[in-house]
């Protein structure tokens, strides 16, 4: 047994996977061999789910069947929706509400609760948008909007959120964001889902754990942090580069920068930046675009990018969601709405040739210690 300690499991291979590959040196991401750029521009989120879960991009007939199966699972039990409402009234913590509601779904899974990872995973994936939209509606004092099975996964979410069918640009933009976030190798939340799945726990447990891991500021939580940073820059009245210089002097990390695997700019950040430019061109509102690009240019001049600390997917996503009028604290739950596809795919793949995941820690405590009874301490 090797005694070498790998802090943060950096570079450690723990599984084989055909699902996605991140080439951090050149900034390339593929899902089953397909470049993310092609999928983002040419495939819907439903097509990507089919690719991840069933091994290939669907034919039109397969897509119709698969899309209808997913759409049929969108309704969420009233008891779960009542809990979502309670949590929305309790405070602005949509990620915690989502985690709680997904966990609760396992008690109400009806026909989908047959223990099959893909069947249950499809039901969870279909229901997450309904849960999130209901949360947002409840905190606005509105009733939930029932899902529309005729709309796409992306379009239906925006419809349930606002009560109005989205225009084509919003639906395509949101669908693209879902595709971009669907999978990314063994990132922290997917690994969490895998550890849970490796005990042969149900997929509800894996997804609940995945949501918890994704919420942190070093992982999916960074997309909200980036928007908070942009607002802080705005409130400060400072030039964004000057603000970034001061933040660096204070030893602060810049959210949306740096990555364990990418040593260059994340390809998903390039796509989202381009999308943000399109949205800014059509709306004329260029503020967040100008702030983000100014911060990126400053950090590049400071040599961070050369050191491998470059923009990641979270750097531009929030500005895109903001341009679509989506509240800031829904950004990380929306990441979960997409990444659930990857969590389910990895658990399904891993369990086909399962081995319990159980690493070890190097013990650094004392060799022996004298036991003193409670009353003598
Ligand atoms: C979807 C996602 O999960 S993408 C990642 C989202 N998270 C963020 O954007 C949060 C900001 N980024 C970070 O905190 C990190 O870059 C992480 C957590 C993503 C990767 O962390 P690790 O691979 O463990 O790198 P680690 O934390 O060891 O940092 C290495 C060095 O880069 C520096 N660094 C890393 N990220 C940043 C940053 N955002 N801003 C400034 N410096 C940074 C560290 O200070 C450290 O410098 P040092 O060696 O001089 O001490
Ligand atoms: O791969 C990672 O470590 C983080 C990331 O970019 C993701 O999960 O999308």
From TrEMBL:
It catalyses: oxaloacetate + acetyl-CoA + H2O = citrate + CoA + H(+). GO terms for cellular component: cytosol. Pathway: Carbohydrate metabolism; tricarboxylic acid cycle. Its EC number is 2.3.3.16. InterPro entries: 2-MeCitrate/Citrate_synth_II, Cit_synth_Halo_CitZ, Citrate_synth-like_lrg_a-sub, Citrate_synth-like_sm_a-sub, Citrate_synthase, Citrate_synthase_AS, Citrate_synthase_bac-typ, Citrate_synthase_sf. It is an enzyme of class 2 (transferase). The keyword Transferase applies. The keyword Transferase applies. Keywords: Transferase, Tricarboxylic acid cycle. The active site is at 259, 314. Belongs to the citrate synthase family. This is Citrate synthase. It comes from Halorubrum halodurans.
